[in-house]
Amino acid sequence: MKGFRGKVAVVTGAGSGIGRALALALAARGARLAVSDIDPAGLAEFDPGVHTATLDVSDRDAVVDYAATVAAHYGVVHQVYNNAGISGGGQSVLDTSWEVYEKTLAVNLFGVIHGTKAFLPHLIASGDGHVVNISSLNGFLAQPTLSAYAASKFGVRGFTEALRTEMLVGGHPVQVSVVHPGGVKTNIASATGSDLTPAQAARVRVYNEKLLTMPAAEAARIILDGVEAGRPRILVGRDAKAVDRLVRLLPRRYPALVARYERRLFGDA
Ligand SMILES: NC(=O)c1ccc[n+]([C@@H]2O[C@H](COP(=O)([O-])OP(=O)(O)OC[C@H]3O[C@@H](n4cnc5c(N)ncnc54)[C@H](O)[C@@H]3O)[C@@H](O)[C@H]2O)c1
Fold first, then answer.
1. What is the pTM of this model?
2. CB within 6 Å of ligand 1 — which residues?
3. Which of 45, 186, 211, 218 to mutate to test the pocket of ligand 1 (most atoms within 8 A of CB)?
4. What separation in Å is there between the alpha carbon of 16 and the centre of ligand 1?
């Protein structure tokens, strides 16, 4: 069945940014919602009928319990949007701490694995399931100071594409989409923290002013149109589409081009 009317949709990281916009757009298209976030502050504005929960997607047991709770609440689950994510610091490999690598992979990659695996039996049982995993343009392009983020987002892409092949081989009634947004105007860069080096703070400023420009509502519309059309790969924004072409045309040369672009954009920061 096409469309969202009456579908039960789960959105993680729904307290702000793309997740919040996705949840609002899903509600506007007639879906029944289960929204969660590690920070419950942003969930207060959802209608009382919406199932809300405080959830850390990196906590495997909590996600498994949450899937059972949502399935019991609605009796069925059709769609999961594994959206919660963090930026991973913005420092070089030399300077990034082990803890930042562990946390970024725990949230961005394991969060997606937890949400997918915990809900998958319910999606199959629904007879009309859809897994939507949010990667990034950094799921196919690597950049300086984003090694943790890129590792997690390339990982999301690999995990999601493997799942798609399994659903096809097994003939399961579950579609699978990986989403690669370009720059979307959200808090993700600023959420890096307040204890930043001057170089990190300068990068956050440039990201917020020059790169994260698409309104979250527009990103949500593109994602839901892609989901409705059953697209396995959803590119969000002209930047994501251009970068996708670049890395496929120049797989060996693109790191040198990225290095030149970075020096122009950030100087030596
Ligand atoms: N904004 C962009 O330009 C952009 C580009 C590509 C991909 N993305 C991806 O989109 C997704 C949403 O990011 P956003 O830009 O809306 O950022 P955001 O910071 O506005 O929203 C992320 C949300 O996830 C929540 N969150 C963080 N850690 C969590 C955890 N452990 N468990 C549950 N919730 C947690 C935050 O509280 C926040 O509400 C992320 O996966 C991000 O990597 C964003």
1. 0.96
2. 12-13, 15-19, 37-39, 42, 55-58, 83-86, 107, 134, 136, 181, 183-184, 186-188, 191, 212
3. 186
4. 8
The average pLDDT across 145-156 equals 97
CA distance 179 to 82: 10
Q: Which fold has domain 8-266?
A: Rossmann fold (3.40.50)
Question: CA-to-CA distance for 138 and 224, rounded, in angstroms?
Answer: 21
Question: Residue 268: what pLDDT?
Answer: 60
Q: How do the domains of the chain map onto residue ranges?
A: 8-266
Q: Which residues pair with 177 in a beta bridge?
A: 132
Ligand 1 atom with minimal separation from the 183 CA: 3
Q: Is the Cβ–Cβ distance between 66 and 114 less than 8 Å?
A: no
pLDDT per residue as tens digits for the range 216-266: 999 999 999 999 999 999 999 999 999 999 999 999 999 999 999 988 888
Q: Which of 66, 74, 81, 149 is catalytic?
A: 149
What confidence tens digit (pLDDT) does each residue in 119-145 have? 999 999 999 999 999 999 999 999 999
Question: Treating both helix axes as pointing N-terminal to C-terminal, what angle do 147-170 and 111-126 enclose, rounded to 10 degrees?
Answer: 20
